[in-house]
Amino acid sequence: MKYVDEFRDREKAKVLVAEIETLVSEMDVSEDRPLHIMEICGGHTHSIFRYGIEGMLPKEIELVHGPGCPVCVLPMGRVDDCISIAERPDVIFTTFGDAMRVPGSKKSLMQAKGDGADVRMVYSPMDALQLARQHPDKEVVFFGLGFETTMPSTALTILQAEREGIANFSVFCNHITIVPTIKAILDSPDLRIDGFLGPGHVSMVIGMEPYEFIARAYKKPMVISGFEPLDVLQSLWMVLKQIKQGRAEIENQYARIVPEAGNASALSAVARVYELREHFEWRGLGSIDQSGVRLRDAYARFDAERKFAVPGVKIADPASCQCGEVLKGLIKPWQCKVFGTECTPEVPLGALMVSPEGACAAYYQYGGVKQHSVPKRGAA
Amino acid sequence: MNVIPFVRTRPRGRVNVPTVTLSHGGGGKAMKDLIDDVFVGAFDNPALAPLEDQARFDLAALTARGDRLAFTTDSFVVDPLFFPGGDIGKLAVCGTVNDLAVGGAVPLYLSCAVIIEEGMPLTTLRQIVQSMAAAAAEAGVAIATGDTKVVEKGACDKLFITTTGVGVIAPERDLGAHKARPGDAVLVNGLLGDHGAAILGARGDLALEAAIESDCAPLNGLIETLLAAAPGTRFLRDATRGGVATVLNEIADASQVAIEIDEAATPIRQEVKAFCEILGLDPLYLANEGKVVAITPPEEAEAALAAMKAHPLGGGAAMVGAVAEGQAGRVTMQTVFGGKRIVDMLVGEQLPRIC
């Protein structure tokens, strides 16, 4: 496939792996005291598992799979709210596909659909708006989900609905922003991260500046990375190079997509439509200040949270769940007490087992090459 | 001829209304007219002709062809009813023919039970039934008995078809999922994932236009060719729902072996790859309706591959991997990138990813 295969070239990968091995051999690290590099974004986690990248790296590098999977970190209480809207007889509830299986306290959207709710999978919020045009007698609600990657398309859809005067369209806004969460991870007292792979498509929107504090205040290197396997390897090499040279900078490996200043028109749509919430609940991480957005008052009529009364009940994560420790790199997924036993992709207890981009689900599905005893389904 | 002969007396009925209504399921003349006009005419064969409540077969004629009867059933519900490369009718015949053929059976007879939602246009129904007849002719099977029900609007989605099939297995054949041994070759007869991608594309709700046709086809001819060339073949299965990944996991589990496949050797159409890239899907899990996974002993692998390649439905055949020692029940893939990953069963169906 043109423009894709070039980034999956096995021979180039060999060269990069050799370079990484050389770098690591010159550093003061060992298998017992490895370097912890966190890929923040679930898209990177997916690529790492999809292409078996972890197994190609020297043992002195441990990848920590970060919180950048918007589906995974959605708290149960919000899913419950979502289902309460979806189950209204006058509502067509529209969502991205992978949000269908996220469990609420009682059921998922998939189960709600089975119980008779009109839940439809869409690929873009514009598809939801089209449904609203086609069904003027129904309330069409779009499940706004994701980081800055998807935030602008939801904002632009709301602006379009406003222009057309469409009254039966609204958004249940669960958009979140990654930077406060990176800060929360960096502030955690038991932090064990030596460097970051920065999110690619979030950065395409927000640019590089919002990450500067990571280098300045926390002295950690970050490389904004593309999603093809060669992108990931090259970015890892760039992070290691910074560590070796004692630098802590925000570098951009994904320059073919990410402009330094981000995307001005996307940012302006985002600023026009949303405002920061004081705090937002993340599954596995708890409440994080200013980590979510809601619709501004000027767009209240497109806000499903205001249009429909939702229960808004906060549901605590199960006590046995160790997602927070996995997210901070303190334990690997399979070291969690409930991994593969009480918590499986069929019945996920914790955030990271929910979506294929979640670290635990990825380990369960694709297996970690360095780790030899991921229980097969049915085994303990 | 292994069918009890019969002389027809009743004149064939005709339907003169444009759509199917509940009266066509009422058991009276309207139903008989529908069956006569739409089904009997199209399926026309000696086993069906008597229109008894059951088709009757001469046992001696069956036992002359083998020592075991293969018996299978499958229901078909597909949206949309027509898609590039096929329709529900073709699917319903090929699916059951293939389920018989992968057991080493020669498929002989099918039943056809349809549940029709009232309001279905007669032209649509005729088209689907003609398509069933054409697929049955291609596969060399007779649709020997059937049933028709009409349900109220909303009680089913347009049309559901259940086909049940019988075939005969020759004495020397003994295929089984538990028979894979380390060293065996893993073969497929062509490009993977076409059907799944064609259906997703044809639904239109993803607004993706891709010129991908379903691979829907009866595989009994190809399988006969394959088994003649590689009589030691351990196991065959058509890689339908869940795709090749699921079949390989079933084999690895049943035989308590590991299976290693090579992504670079896995035949997938560029359009299907691109389709999967955009939606975040994995083609190994996409459905096929004309693809068989074959496990053959290493010494017969080349002959099996050559035989498939020589068949019209096997031009893209490839050896995609091998059965290996290693963790029992585990399927791994050498990625194009040089890494290695586990290919597990899916939890549910694949869902497009958010970003």
Short recap of the structure:
The complex is a heterodimer of chains A (380) and B (355). With 380 residues, chain A is α/β, with parallel strands linked by helices.
Keywords:
heterodimer, A: 380 residues, alpha/beta, Rossmann fold, four-stranded parallel β-sheet, 16% strand, globular, B: alpha+beta, 60s Ribosomal Protein L30, Chain: A, seven-stranded mixed β-sheet, four-stranded mixed β-sheet, 9 helices
Q: How many strand elements of chain B?
A: 13
- Within CATH, the superfamily of the largest domain in chain A carries the name HypD, alpha/beta domain 1
* Number of separate helices of chain A: 14
Oligomeric state of the chains present here: heterodimer
Number of strands of chain A: 13
N-to-C terminal Cα separation of chain B, in Å? Answer: 60 Å
Biggest interface, residues from each chain: A-B, 53 and 32 residues
Report on the biggest sheet of chain A.
5 strands, parallel
- The overall average pLDDT of chain B, rounded, is 93
| Strand order in the sheet with the most strands of chain B | 8-10-7-11-9-12-13
How far from one another are the termini of chain A?
Answer: 41 Å
* Known CATH architecture of the largest domain in chain A: 3-Layer(aba) Sandwich
Describe the structure.
The complex is a heterodimer of chains A (about 375) and B (about 350). Chain A has 14 helices and 13 strands. Chain A is of the alpha/beta class and about 375 residues long. A five-stranded parallel β-sheet of chain A has the order 2-1-7-8-9. In chain A, strands 4-3-5-6 form a four-stranded parallel β-sheet, with helices on both faces. In chain A, strands 10-13 form a two-stranded antiparallel ribbon. The relative contact order of chain A is 0.16. With about 350 residues, chain B is α+β, with helices and mostly antiparallel strands. Chain B has two domains: about 20-170, 2-Layer Sandwich (60s Ribosomal Protein L30, Chain: A); about 175-340, PurM-like C-terminal domain (Phosphoribosyl-aminoimidazole Synthetase, Chain A, domain 2), CATH 3.90.650.10. Helix content of chain B is about 30%, strand content about 20%. Chain B has helices at about 30-45, 60-65, 90-100, 120-140, 195-205, 220-230, 245-255, 270-280, 300-310, and strands at about 70-75, 80-85, 85, 105-115, 140-150, 160-170, 185-190, 235-240, 260, 290-295, 320-325, 330-335, 340. Chain B has a seven-stranded mixed β-sheet with strand order 8-10-7-11-9-12-13. In chain B, helix 1 (about 30-45) runs parallel beside helix 4, helix 3 packs parallel to helix 4 and helix 6 (about 220-230) packs antiparallel against helix 9 (about 300-310). The longest helix of chain B is centred in the middle third of the chain and has 18 residues, at about 120-140. Chain B is globular, with a radius of gyration of 22 Å.
